[in-house]
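Researcher: Good morning. I'm working through a list of sequences from a screen, and I'd like to move beyond sequence-only analysis. For each chain I'm collecting a predicted structure so we can compare shapes side by side. This is the next one on the list. No need for commentary yet; just the structure.
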Amino acid sequence: MSDGTTFSTLDPNAGPGTQRVRNVHGPDHADRSDEVRYVLERLSQQRNFDLILFPADGGLGFRTVQAKRAGLGFEGVLLAVRLDRCSEWHRDQEHRWPSGLSELEIDFAERYAFERADIQVASSTEILDYIRGIGWTPSSNVIVETPYEGATACLYRNLPLTPLVSEKCRPLVTVGVPHYNLGRYLPEALASLAGQTYPNLEILVIDDGSNDPASSAAFERMQCVYPQFRFLRQQNAGIGATRNRGLKEASGEFFIPMDADNVARPDMVERFVNGIQVNPDLSAMTCYYLAFGEKVPLAREEYLYACRPTGGPHTLASIRNVYGDANAIFRTAALRAVGGYEIDRDTSFEDWEAFVKLVNAGHAVGVIPAALFYYRHREAGFSRVTDDYRNHQRVLRQFLRIDHLPASERAVLWGTLVGFHLDAERHRGMLRYAAADRLHALCNKVPYATRSLKWLYANGGRVWDRVRGLL
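Model: Good morning. Structure tokens for this chain:
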């Protein structure tokens, strides 16, 4: 254009091939913002952007803001989010309640992107008053302006560029590896930890009373291969207790639990440490992962699914795990303060439950939007051989212990309850009407059927009384 403006069409396939691996939770709205993020990463390298501006509505800037917050890119680029409207405002204008999990995810993505943007812009004081009323917390530096004007860019240029990543030390990180009858996979897991780019590591490998001779032999052999690691043994106590043993023994400022059948990327620990150090408000950070089958070598890169957690909203964590896998980084003191993991023996989801405990206690959990490890999907895995109903119950019990929910989460909880109830009622009504229509169509094909049903409807009670009398 004559004013120097150029347009670029975003290619949804511009990201890595792994981005097209299906999400374990099915199609996810956040995946769209991931596509935008990957395109912008490439364009930013080519054009050296000073600023990238997103609309708040739809949450397209969600993963880009999340990536910058995690130290994955966009350093030196200002990320601005402009709030004209949001999805919750649209529903309010339409007198409509949320009707599905995807709407809760979009609401969270919009709020996260706006609240954590480098620059917040609002089109009016009215929309700011609205989002404050539903629990959003805009900064005191939010820019209020009328619809897009040429002066907008000048306002942004006057804001200083603050680098996200500063010079930092290399604190000790403890990685705890619980092992129970997984000798077949333990060598690959430990080799991936030995190959980490992060230098200041303490590796604890804890055998939880394995009763498989081959696994016990593998555990013994690994002690000779990795004398720099600490190997511990205990009577069988279960996964929660074994993780707690690692947490108790940990000397590091940060603690990473990693299962003995998973495989870490070489930069896993370094990415985790970098992410949590530039986010002092977070007590834990999770990440994406790629799942592969137990019979297919990882080198073939044939992934079964991916996990790309959003990190919220917390209320949605009562329905499904929005936080991610146990393979995460924790501030050791914070995880100890909430009592670590629950030690139930007959149920799984102890990792999901631990995240809920942290957030309930006032801690925050973030997400590094990158696959930092590979998850081995085993059909005999503990979470797949235990009862899903009981597993979920142990997560819900933590929600029953909440004394206080932030205003934003209360709004999500009660709005969702009403919306899902009304949606279920509408669905049942549609089923009733559909059944009546089918019955009517069937009756029209059968001679005297409609007349007989009408008679039975009018006289059914009297006929039944006579039948009971005969009995």
